[in-house]
Amino acid sequence: MASRKCAAVVVGAGPAGVAVMGNLLERQLGTIAWVDPCFEAGRINRRYREVPSNTKVALFEAYATATQPFRNVIEKARLPNAFSTMSKLEQDKTCHLHYAADMVRDLTDGLVKMEQVYACRGFVTAAKLTEKSSNQWTVRVQRHDSEGDVEIETSRLILCTGSHPTNLPCPVPSLDIQQLDLDTVLKPSELTEAIPTNRPSTIAVVGASHSAILALLNLIQLARTSHPQLRVKWFTRHPLRYAEYMDGWILRDNTGLKGTAADFARTQLEDDKLATSPAGEVITKIDCTGGDARENAQYWAHLPTCSHIVHAVGFTRDPLPHLTKNGSPLALEFDHESGRFHESNNGPAIPGLFGAGIAFPERVVDPYGNVEYAVGFFKFMKFLKKVVPSWATKI
Ligand SMILES: Cc1cc2nc3c(=O)[nH]c(=O)nc-3n(C[C@H](O)[C@H](O)[C@H](O)COP(=O)(O)OP(=O)(O)OC[C@H]3O[C@@H](n4cnc5c(N)ncnc54)[C@H](O)[C@@H]3O)c2cc1C
Ligand SMILES: NC(=O)c1ccc[n+]([C@@H]2O[C@H](COP(=O)([O-])OP(=O)(O)OC[C@H]3O[C@@H](n4cnc5c(N)ncnc54)[C@H](OP(=O)(O)O)[C@@H]3O)[C@@H](O)[C@H]2O)c1
């Protein structure tokens, strides 16, 4: 098997992996290995190009210009390109995510051509830490080309492996109800094919955060156009929560509704609007507040008349490579402040292992003491600016 040494191995080429690359390259540590099956901006590009952003264009631009290697890529890119297109959009408005995805793809295309980057199209299947000798990781990559697997030795391994929608079983187990994938519901061009037009369908939507509200929006759009027989039951266990712009900071910056989802929720979904709004002609709200017993009773009462169910209840980390230390499997806990890991149950620090992105976000506390996890392009960048200098120091 081929083998080589690198200053770091970055796993994943979504917006977080790209941001890590920009920050590491800026520090000129030597060759950085970068592994991803396709180098095409991760899940945002694969699944969410049709989703409206909940952050302003200016923040995507701030991300794209935050490191010198990114600025070098942008300078060299032939016009027109994703950056020039993005810069023509209104900076304080939101945009569709295809603009952001294309920008990350252009950054990726520029970064993989750099001399200090060893881009490896494939999948990291395992990584073993050998502590006794020199805290080295040996990272195994299953390559997606004909060159076979490769092993990379490094003292820094950075996991930017992403997350996928959380799947839950149907709350009423024996029902014959079709599960709809959240990713499909967030993609109108696919959703239209997933629901029949020739018979009535009732879709259960579970949740009340960004994904759930956009799911409702896409479904009522279908009901008002190609699918007039479609109806929605909306199972929600808390009131709608919005981001609020305070003096110099944002309350519920990471959990509150923003952008298109917030506008739609405010004007059509609030209790005093739903009865008379266009959305109310399609959506019946099923109030699941009041605890587990009531929530369960609501499902038993209202789910049997539904044909489909979509869970919009957050995201779960993608499976990690098989990680071992001195031959034994590692159980990890992420430190959301330093971006490092330690062994579970307050075990020892794991040398040279770091994380970033939606799977490993920064923990933030707002001026009211509320704790949130910072998920977003520019939030990843801000976190990395803070922690990468310590990751980069000689180990
Ligand atoms: C629907 C939705 C809308 C969002 N909208 C916004 C927005 O408007 N603004 C904003 O700032 N943020 C937004 N976010 C939040 C966040 O920016 C995105 O979730 C972003 O895609 C997360 O990037 P990531 O790099 O952490 O993960 P991903 O994009 O999931 O990338 C992970 C990458 O790692 C690869 N990978 C995984 N395991 C391995 C392995 N073992 N070996 C090699 N490669 C591997 C995957 O193939 C993938 O390419 C949104 C999130 C969602 C879910
Ligand atoms: N561009 C966009 O507009 C957009 C769209 C989608 C997602 N995103 C981003 O993607 C990330 C994930 O967002 P998300 O909206 O998918 O999820 P999320 O913000 O993680 O919220 C998950 C929600 O699901 C609820 N929930 C969890 N388990 C539940 C259950 N069993 N039954 C009912 N409700 C349950 C939670 O409510 P409780 O608090 O009651 O547990 C919470 O409100 C965020 O960073 C978000 O900004 C952005």
UniProtKB/TrEMBL annotation:
Ranges that cross the membrane: none
Source organism (scientific name): Penicillium chermesinum
GO molecular function: oxidoreductase activity
Pfam (any one): Pyr_redox_2
InterPro entries recorded: Agnestin_monoxygenase, FAD/NAD-bd_sf, FAD/NAD-binding_dom
Domain of life (superkingdom): Eukaryota
Name under which the protein is recorded: FAD/NAD(P)-binding domain-containing protein
Domain FAD/NAD(P)-binding: from-to ranges: 9-212
Lineage, highest ranks first: Eukaryota, Fungi, Dikarya, Ascomycota, Pezizomycotina
Gene3D superfamilies to which the protein is assigned, alphabetical: FAD/NAD(P)-binding domain (3.50.50.60)
